[in-house]
Amino acid sequence: MLVLTYICRRVAASKKEKPDLQKKVHEVPHKPGVYLMRDRFNRVIYVGKARDLRKRVSSYFLPSKLAQADLKTRAMLDATWDFETHTVRSDAESVLFEGKLIKEYRPRYNISFRDDKRFLVVRVDLSEEWPRFRLARFKKDDGSRYFGPYAHAGALRQTLNFMRKRFGVLTFGRGAPTERELKSSTYQVPVRLSETSAEQYRERVAQACEFLEGKSREMITALEEQMRTAAEKMDFEKMADVQALADALHLSDAPRVMECFDISNISTTHVVASMVCFRDGVPDKNNYRRYRVRTVKGQDDFASMAEVVRRRYSRILLEARAADSDAAEFSQENAFEAVARYRATASVAEPEAGKRDACPTNEKQAQSYVRLPDLIIVDGGKGQLSSACRELQRLGLHELPIIGLAKEHEEIYRPGRALPLRLPMDSPALRLLQRIRDEAHRFANAYHQLLMKKRVEESILDDCPGVSQNRKSLLLQRFGSVNRLRKATIDEIAATEGIGRKLAEDVHLFLQRH
Fold it and tell me: Residue 346 in contact with residue 361, Cβ under 8 Å?
């Protein structure tokens, strides 16, 4: 019976007309990811990765591509009846995802993807008179030395470039140094390559091998010193991106601590917001916050901005008030002045932290240190800024500096000013604001994608027989996620309120199969 069913399906599939996949290509995004080619029986026959999915996938269906393709690619394209794509966050992630899918599906048009075969390795054949450092995809039992594998190809090529300049070793190519290499200034350290014997050159190779192994302590110490010097220079430059901002906005002090808000409402299902904190011009990720908008229905950026600003700074005030020894006096003061007084009387203070600190009074509070920022930035124009300002005034924080940054023309809106401020596009102050705004946007979108992914994962329970919406909620409340529920035993599932033994067995079996 199974054989008959299989034959019927193959006959039916053979009668289907091959779809026009060029139309589907236009729906593919310009993002990094992985693509899967499927045949007429919906089997995966090829898995590939791309930095730009649309460019890569569309290239397969160009007439010129088919005409120039090798026999293997032609056969694969002839057998392809459909494709699907999956986006990822980076090119490195696409490499890992590609390997996972190849191992899972074992497509016939892919070369076998073993553990480290696709990542680059560095190969040096010490039996050669003039050993060269070359890149390879495979480790072979040929007597050569191999280093790696390395997932980041760009960083590896930069490392080889550094080795050429620092050790004067040859990379790529074969044999003795060419005339061009002998004249190149790249290989003239510490002695001219033309004046170096093959034996002396092998000493350079040995030093470079030690460097790749991480054994060259002297070299690593020198590199660390260079990194420290560069970091100090960068810190100075960043403190100068901060002072320029203070000058542009006519602030009395440089804004050491800045907090920026962004709303992400790609869909009405999840409206979320982010707050990122920059301290001395660099991200302070320990103080990042993310919010799910609770009180706003639909897509209303103004109301959403008001909610998250209110929640952020009312919390700071409540924490400062709870920690203050004289709560009665605190409640009678102007909120801004109260936080400043609390900072002045606190027994533990951050050195030179500024006048807006809400400082801890014991070791436990010091771990969750909070303070009012020197500058608030909201992503948006007049509407978002006005909404945020109203909430600050209600909290008594009207003295806090705040601006809005509208993305379209990079205009800076300030309270009480009708016309926006426009800074030159190469202004250090504007570049700093853009960096903060873009980080808030990235953080908000990442949270939104996380919630959407979780919702998609949870939707699998909708197809499980016997699981109503109420039982679905009970299971998710108990286990937190579908992934944890999938790992639970039947007894653990049955212990959930409203879930009997029989249903627990059904849920467990369903999740193992799906």
Answer: yes
Burial 112-123 (b: 16+ CB within 10 A, else e): ebeebebbbbbb
Of 109-118, 278-287, 354-363, 418-427, the least confident:
354-363
Q: How far is CA 308 from CA 261, 262, 275, 384, in A?
A: 8, 9, 9, 11
At 514 the three-state DSSP class reads coil
Pairing of strands 257-264, 375-379: parallel
CA distance 53 to 55: 6
Q: Do the Cβ atoms of 377 and 437 come closer than 8 Å?
A: yes
Which string of DSSP letters, residue by residue, matches 333-390?
S-HHHHHHHHHHH-SS--TT--TTEE--SSHHHHHT-EE--SEEEEESSHHHHHHHHH
Q: Give me the pLDDT at residue 477, please.
A: 81
Strands (DSSP E) found in 139-253: 145-150
Phi, psi angle pair for 388, to nearest 5°: -65, -40
Q: How far apart are CA 403 and CA 432, in angstroms?
A: 14
Residues 322 and 342: beta-carbon distance below 8 Å: no
Pairing of the two strands 272-279 and 282-283: antiparallel
Cβ 122 vs Cβ 212: under 8 Å: yes
Counting residues of the chain whose pLDDT is more than 90, the rounded percentage is 21
- Given a contact cutoff of 8 angstroms between Cβ atoms, the answer to whether 121 and 137 are in contact is yes
- Find the length of the chain: 514
Average of per-residue pLDDT across 227-232: 66
Q: With 0-12 CB in 10 A as exposed, 13-18 as middle and 19+ as buried, what is 272?
A: buried
The secondary structure element, H or E, covering residue 210 is helix 198-213
What's the confidence (pLDDT) of residue 220?
A: 66
Is residue 303's pLDDT more than 80?
yes
38, containing H or E segment: strand 33-38
Domains of the chain: 2-105 (3.40.1440.10), 120-215 (no CATH), 253-438 (3.30.420.340), 464-513 (1.10.150.20)
Computed over every residue of the chain, the mean pLDDT equals 79
- Give dist(CA 166, CA 222) in Å, integer: 12
pTM comes to 0.47
* Nearest to 374, CA basis, from 241, 262, 275, 260: 260
Element containing residue 263 per DSSP (H, E): strand 257-264
Could you give the count of Cα atoms lying within 13 Å of 185 in the half-sphere of its Cβ?
0
